[in-house]
Amino acid sequence: MIGVTTTPTTTGGPPRSPARRRRVDSLLVLCVLLIAAMVWQDRVVAALDAPALRTGSTVFVAVCVQAMPFLALGVLISGMIAAFVPASALRRVLPRNTAAAVGVAGMAGLALPGCECASVPVARRLMQQGVPPAVALAFLLAAPAVNPVVLVATAVAFPGEPAMVLARFLGSLATAVVTGWLWVRIGRAEWIAERALRRIVPRPGASRWAVFAETARHDLVEAGGFLVLGGLTAAVLNVAVPASWVTSLAGQVALGVVVMAVLAVVLALCSEADAFVAASLSALPLLPRLVFLVVGPAVDVKLVALQAGTFGRAFAVRFAPLTFLVAVVCGVVAGLLVLGGAR
Amino acid sequence: MRRETQNVVLALLGGALLKIAWNGTYLRYVKPGLFPWLVATGVVMVALAAVAIVRDVLAARTGRAVPAPACAGDHPHGQPEPSDVAVSGETETPARLARTEASSAVEARTASDTPAPEDAGGRERDHEQGRDHEQGHDHEQGHDHEQGHGHGHGHREPRSPWLLLLPVLAIFLVAPPALGSDAVNRAGAGNDEAARQRSSGSPMFPPLPGGDAIPLPIGEVVTRTVWDDSGSLDNRTLRLTGFLVRRDDGRPLLARMVIRCCAADASPRTVLLSGGDAQLAGYAPDTWLEVVGKVVPGSGRASVDHTPTFTVESVRPVAAPTDPYE
Lengths: 343, 326
What we know:
The complex is a heterodimer. By secondary structure, chain A is mainly α. Chain A is 76% helix and 0% strand.
């Protein structure tokens, strides 16, 4: 109840004066920016001519180009949910018991064949339609990690190790479900920014398709910016982290687990590609590489940027470390059980 | 960024994706298989922007100030934008600081709450949270509307869409090249990934086609030297296409990058060029070359990071292939 009275003070800032905002129009700024970029194109290109910057800019564009289709898929699904799936339908499908619903949501992750960028806007709309946050978050974590495309990719990348696929599936599913259960216990509604749950209220006469188009456009524009931020971070780290760090870890399982977990966060690979990267790090035992595969889809820099933008910073600073810890533990346990040791 | 500008940026981004799909430069960044997805995404972005623009124009014509669902659904009114994630080292505004303080006060309060008892309690609390939440939500909306409409234009515009300009500018103005020698040198020593790949796959290699100067991918040269004990490459003249790389110590390599998904996960495939120093002297790193020669049998050992030695017979510069990756 206190939450009701405090929320406005936590979110309401003094409104800016209309006069001041009129002066700098964003459309004008955009035009000036574009013209400036065209006029000084040669200088910009020349400034980026250092080899490291060239490699970094290629990786940056690559991450953006690779992830945009998945984000677009995600916002289309999110628009569909907002426009066509009434909250009552979701409530009927999910078990009443939140803890049971978390498990269902984890298994539902099998159905969305995309990578992590697609699941963030979808989870947001699920919350908006009255799905408990813990359940939507379990779906958010499970969808990119346990879907068939990712599991097949893992099987292809580790041809001699079918146990790796099972270990990854169990580790990732456990991460999603355990995090969901923990969120039921410790999560607080006010950590999630109010804007994430704002429902689009169509005026009378607005068609469902209008709601769909507007929701998708809005999600794409906002989340897209954070995806770009994440891509930028990943590109910088991709170029800055020397590959020799990893190969020097051969034989040190405990340290390897920690380093590979951190590497999964900073590299921000697509969950459909990370298995191949993990397979290539043949100097390391299987266990650290499994942890890499379990942590990557659950938490990485571009995902944290996306979540902070979608659900708010207060949410992201709690959710990211929580998921990281849970994913490392689940990965190690799944590895010890399924792979039978560090190997 | 206001709504109209967002739409322009969204259309630009969609256009950028369509452009790289159209002129084939998307192959510098991703696999050929992404082509239909890329086109679809570009079309979706342009279409969403166009629909929003058309609706805005129609709404303006019929005299409605704001298009129907936009008001409630568009950017949050009177509350911090998503960009409070420290987009670019901006200084904290007083309003933002006040907000952070207030929210930590809330945390302090909630932290001191008595912990809920076991199972049933947890569920109950969940319900309560939900209710709290719902009411907070309603209240908040009322508050916003009051603010938004009371001041005529109390919207605070999200700043994160500005970041969408970065890939647009990068694609239209810079058009970053495919990964080259810098990426090879950055990736470390050798062909460990290629070497690993075959270790558990099928040990059988199909026989090479007959004839002279057989074109072969560098990745296959590596796997065959490392894993094929039948010596299928011995005394065969091969034609390899790749770009020139100079190691720090000046050794020349011929290389191709291999990508699985996008350039962020690329790994190199390399052969060491020997005996062609005079012919290679005139070429700068990253020059695309077609090199004819023979693999030194048994040269791709683990001690040299699975990098086979390739004896150069002739070198000729070629145009970069459409798909720079193997």
